[in-house]
Amino acid sequence: MSIQVLQGRSGADVRRLLDALPDWFGDPAAIDNYVSAADDLQYESSLAVDDGLVLGVALTRRHFPEAAELHLIAVHPDARGRGIGRRLVDAVAFVLAADGCTLLSVHTVGPSFHHEPYAQTRAFYRHVGFTPLEEHVGLEWPGPTLILVRPLRSVRTEAPLQ
Ligand SMILES: CC(C)(COP(=O)(O)OP(=O)(O)OC[C@H]1O[C@@H](n2cnc3c(N)ncnc32)[C@H](O)[C@@H]1OP(=O)(O)O)[C@@H](O)C(=O)NCCC(=O)NCCS
Prior knowledge:
The chain is of the alpha+beta class and 162 residues long. It has helices at residues 11-19, 28-38, 84-98, 116-127, and strands at residues 4-7, 43-50, 53-64, 67-75, 103-109, 131-137, 144-151.
């Protein structure tokens, strides 16, 4: 697989990816907000690129020196299940940990709202190291929001002692 994860911004690619995922991103206003976030310097943006084509995106926001949020992750449906989502999460986790961040959180639709696409999303988050922390109703939408967290391992930037 020749896929590379790069730091880069592309609102147009975020829109193309989210338009291809209507089961998760069916609200045009929500898509507009993610597209705006892609060009907002408060967010870091990582792109998974294969031969010039963007197949996935991750946006993170650093809320505190110790804590960041995975604001958006999306992989094109034609490229799902090829390890791109894991590559994106691991890449942002590495960069954040190297900068002293110790915790990565993510919000998604909670399990008390039965919806198969988001059950898949929660399974993905569990597979890539996130632990469910809290579910709250009415946090970001009228239904339940699940908050998951992934501790970030400290990254050595100097050579280990022999
Ligand atoms: C969720 C999403 C980002 C995952 O990306 P992906 O490239 O398909 O995932 P990967 O191939 O990297 O899978 C990583 C791991 O998660 C597991 N996984 C992925 N989808 C899964 C599912 N539906 N059920 C169970 N496990 C799943 C994989 O088996 C893999 O585990 P492994 O590495 O231990 O073998 C992608 O499917 C997507 O864009 N979904 C729609 C949008 C979305 O849900 N965004 C988040 C909204 S909050």
